Structures are given as C-alpha cells and as structure tokens.
Amino acid sequence: MSQASINPFKYSDTNKRYYTYEYYLRNTFGEKCAKITLDCGFTCPNIDGTVGYGGCIYCGSGSKSVNCREVTDIKEQYRIGIENARKKWTVNKFIPYMQAYTNTHTSVEILEKTVKEIASFEGAVMLDIATRADCLENEKILVLKKLAEKIPVTVELGLQSSNDNTAKIINRGHDFATFVDCFNNLRSLAPEIKICIHIINGLPNEKYEDMIKTVKDVSILHPDIVKIHLLHVIENTPLAKMYKNGEYVSLNRDFYIQTVCDQIELLPPDTVIERLTGDGIANGLLAPEWSRKKTTVINDIDKEMYKRNSYQGIAFIQ
What we know:
Elements: H1 21-29, E1 33-38, H2 74-85, E2 93-98, H3 108-119, E3 127-131, H4 138-147, E4 153-160, H5 164-169, H6 176-189, E5 194-201, H7 208-221, E6 225-230, E7 233-234, H8 238-244, H9 253-266, E8 272-275, E9 285-287, H10 294-308
Parallel strand pairs: 1-2, 2-3, 3-4, 4-5, 5-6, 6-8
Antiparallel strand pairs: 7-9
C-alpha cells in the first residue's frame, strides 16, 4: 500500500501531508506552471534611507535569480526564465514573479505601468509581487485590485518573525503591528488578491518557542500561502560578520526538520505551503552547509510527517 493511498490530508494526491504549491497550481490552472523570477529595477526602503540603510542583516542580492543577473530588460528576463524552466519541465503556463527587493517601493504610476506590462507577457496566468508591509499604501493596493480583475494576483509580504526584538536585531525596519495592519488592509480592500507570508527559521537569538509563536501568529491571520525559509548565512552581509565572529550559530538539520513539522501541524489546512526551506546553492553560502541538499531535507520532512502519522492543520486552532 502506497503512502499516497493512505494519506489522510485533504489537499493532496501524493504522499505530501501538506498543501503544496504544485498541487494548488495544478488544481487552479489545470496543469503544471513555472514561476519566472524578475528584477524590475526597484530598491528597498530599508536600503535607500526611506526607512533605514543596509537592509536586513541577511540580505545579499535582494533574492535575484540567474535570469535577473546583468539583464535589465524585464521581457528578456522573462524569456530567459522560460528557457531555463523548459530545460527542466514541459510547461506552457507561467507566473511572472516580481521578486528582487521591494516591488511596490515606487510611485503609483510606475507600479501601474510595470504590472500591466508584466501581466501581458505571453503565457502568464498569474502575477506574483514581493513587497514589504510598509510599502503598500491604499493607492497601490487599488492598482493591484484593478489588475486582479483581469489576471490572478498574489502579493508576498515578508514577515520573517512576529517577535519585535528579532525585527530590531535583523534590522527589519518595521514591527509586527505594522505588518498586521497592512495584511488586514490588503485583505479588506482587495479580498480577491492572494496573500503569501514569508517567515524565516533560525534568526539570531530566536529559540524554538519564538519560531512556533510566529507560526501561531501567522495562523491567526490565515493567509492564502506561506513560505517557510531557513536562514542562510551569505558572504558580505552583516550576518556573515556575526557568524565569523561566533555571534551567530546556524540551525542544526534535525532540529530544523522537527521544527518545520511542528509548524506544518499548526498552520490552517487550507493555507498553501509554497516553501519548506530555502535554496542553499547561492554563491557565497557560508552556512548551513547541509542546506545545499534541499531535496533531501524536504524528503526527510515528508518522512517525519508520515512517521508521526500527522498532517497540516492537525494542531490548528481557529
């Protein structure tokens, strides 16, 4: 008997005991989709002085991907991204992902022009926009709401931790109350827009209880999508200096797997989990070295959920 055939989790047709992004896309758009990362030329309010300088202590390149490097034309980035995606999969539907830095940190006029252009790209079935809770004023939400009448829109909000002391340590630039206000405002003004929340495990000074509390706080908000990241120590960042000075120790692999499984159990069962760890293959990665084997980490998370006879939402409290 296969694990898939005895899987008690509702939103799965495989052995995965959580609501995967792949399952969500396949059931939403009828087939596999590929996410194409883009750098639209924006910066970050925590880098340019609007909120602060230096960015978050772990930030290396604003999450730029291969197709964004040294290519400024957005349409060309999209073409390269599709080309790369088709080397791995047979795919004809795409999700342009405005990923690098803060993609609503601009004027309303430039934002509207940019999202309209990207949404019109051939093969695009949804637009995904990464931003911050302190860069989403009402006028910008209404621009995205109007766009969502023509194409599905997801807004990704980086929280990282609900602990305000942690936010100060990582130089986040805003507190949890600001995040909650933005989330609720976006949900109220544009309920048709999907909201994705990012959290990071392994932030400086955080213990298991802090990571669990962040997930509990996120579960209360009940987002459409969640990304769980592992903190990577990247060369030439303030975090790298802390690491080299012995002021920061990265997470142990087994501890990370157990923590993520506990977090999965606490999340609402109908919240899509897009990511369970980060890509550990970035240039300049200092730690943790084990994160380079992302697939084996995810496989061991799956094994632990099966061993527990557990699944997403089993411990969720509404």
